[in-house]
Amino acid sequence: MYPQPPYVVLLAGLFAALTSGYAFSNTLQQSVKAWNENRSTRILANLRGPQLQLPYLGICIGICMFLASGIQGFGFSGKVAYAMGVPMTLLIGLLIWSQLGKILLMLEQGGSRALDLDAF
Fold it and tell me: HEC string of 34-101?
């Protein structure tokens, strides 16, 4: 008999990821709006600080919990599920963080026109 998947952890991970994502979105929007008004490079440099890293870490932890709980739903043990979920979450999280840094750099160098995909 297979153990029941941890539905509570699955829902808690999803909730943590969604609420952290909301905080991440609001922080990023407010910082970009402040940068757009002042055009200060210091504001964009501060975006990579703890005020944006903490919600992003919350997203990653919530996604890892959700992913590992989902893997457990297929009958894997908790150790195996987290051994699969943690590396996937770290890899994807680092790739997305890197892409965000590149987008912020493009925004700083070329303004909002650098991100306009219809201009090409």
Answer: HHHHHCCHHHHHHCCCHHHHHHHHHHHHHHHHHHHHHHHCCCCCHHHHHHHHHHHHHHHHHHHHHHHH
